[in-house]
Structures are given as structure tokens and as C-alpha cells.
């Protein structure tokens, strides 16, 4: 009888402890979220005194209130009919490999010529006219390599907004010193749609303040571009993407802030390209190969 009472007491104690820990976790999570959302007049004053903004960026635009949802998507599996259509577009000059039914890898037998002094817009236009589904991507950056071809990085878009650094929605294009297109690898997200309830986003100005408070933005820096896109930390299966602020500093580096939860994160072209190319251009697991000679 006594043992039964002791056992009941232990169960009640553990239940109370569990409830307490859950409450602490929720309070901590809410507190962490509020860090990026609450404004601090002293921090804002220091920001305005020590950081400049490009003339094309107004404080009013940074303080606009936006409402958005998450979006969901999954990697597209390319069909034989889609590949056949690609081959009919350029039968003589491409060798195309399909990896795991999700990655298109193309090598041009003769590099696609462009003007060596072509502007970025002209080069991007040429690329889009020579790849598959070109209208679904937007140019991000050029990753330059001393002893090899450069890589043009394209990210997939959704409603004209970039989906940042996602291996499932990427186009990587190799070009030589003369801007001739040597080949490309691409993946595509499909079934992209809004999901969840519409929520108010952190203001872009608060995102800048968060980065300044975390020393990601330094004294003397200039904010050169601010835009909203999407990002996810989980890059496989069905993916959920959060609206994400991209803050460009000195036209050199980009910093990212989750527009719902307020946390910041960083990534860079070099690490992304090296990781993505090792996967996308690796044909060791090839399932289907198509070429102009077949």
C-alpha cells in the first residue's frame, strides 16, 4: 500500500517536471524569436549613425508591413518525354545525362559562343535560351575559379522571388574565359505552392538591425540591396520554405534573416557551389544517358 502511494507521488512529480520543462522551452523559444522582432532605440540610433543605405533604399520601404505564408515544394522527376523534347531542341550539340531522374547534366560538344565582353544581362539571356526551363531561374552570381571554368549560379524563383541556395532548384552553368557555355547541371522544384496561414513578416529594417546587433554588419558598411525570397534548412523530400530577408552589404556579401522567426544565418557561394557540383555533376549514379549521336 505504501509503495503504491510512493509510486503515484513519483509519477505526479515527473508530470509536474515535464510540464515545467515544456513551459520553459516555449518561453525560451518565444524569447529567442522576439530578439529579432523587438526594436531597441539605442541600437537603431547607432545603426543610423554608423551604417549607410544605398540611395535606392528608403527607410519607408524598409518599414513596410508584409504578410506572407510558407511555401512547400518537392524535387521534380524529369520524364522521358521531357528529355526527348530537349534533344529535339538541340540534337547535334548536347550530351545529356539524367541522374536519379531528378538532375539534368549537359555537356555541349561545341561550346555555345557568346560575346567575351557581353554584359551580365546579355550572358544570362544566352544561358536561358540554351538550357531547359530557363524562365524558371534567375541569375544569382558568378563563382570564379583560377584554374578551371567559372560557374554561373542560377536559383529557381517563385512569383519572382528567389529560392536561396537549394540544391533542388538550382542551375549551375560552366563558362570559360571567353564566356562560352561549356555545359550545365540543373534541378527543378515542382508542386510549389503556398502553405499554412498568412502571417506578418519582420520588417526589413528590423532584419538589418538584427544583423547589426550581431556584428554581421559593421561600422562603415553600406546596405546596398534588400529583397525577400525563400529558404529552408532541410534540403530533401517535401520541403517547407520560409520567407527570408536577404541583406546585401557593400555589394559584396549577403546575409539572411528568417522573416517569421527572426534568426539570421549565413552561407556563401564557394561552399554551395563545391557541394552542389560534387553532387549534381557526379554521373557515377547515372540512370539514363542521351546524346545527339543516339
Structural commentary:
- Residues 42-260 form the Regulatory protein YycH-like domain.
- This is Two-component system regulatory protein YycI.
- With 294 residues, this protein is α+β, with helices and mostly antiparallel strands.
- It has 2 domains: 24-72 and 193-267, Beta Barrel (Lipocalin); 75-191 and 273-291, YycH protein, domain 2 (TATA-Binding Protein).
- The chain is 32% helix and 35% strand.
- The chain is built from 7 helices and 15 strands.
- The strands form 2 sheets. Strands 3, 4, 5, 6, 7, 8, 9 and 15 form an 8-stranded antiparallel sheet that branches. Strands 1, 2, 10, 11, 12, 13 and 14 form a 7-stranded mixed sheet that branches.
- Residues 24-37 and 290-294 have low confidence and may be disordered.
How does the SSE layout of this entry go?
Blueprint: H1 2-37, H2 41-50, E1 52-53, H3 59-62, E2 67-75, H4 80-89, E3 94-99, E4 103-112, H5 120-130, E5 137-143, E6 150-158, E7 161-162, E8 170-175, E9 181-186, E10 189-200, H6 204-213, E11 222-231, E12 239-249, E13 253-258, E14 264-265, H7 269-280, E15 286-291
Parallel strand pairs: 1-11
Antiparallel strand pairs: 2-10, 2-12, 3-4, 3-15, 4-9, 5-6, 6-7, 6-8, 8-9, 11-12, 12-13, 13-14
Protein name: Two-component system regulatory protein YycI
Domain Regulatory protein YycH-like: 42-260
Organism: Terrihalobacillus insolitus
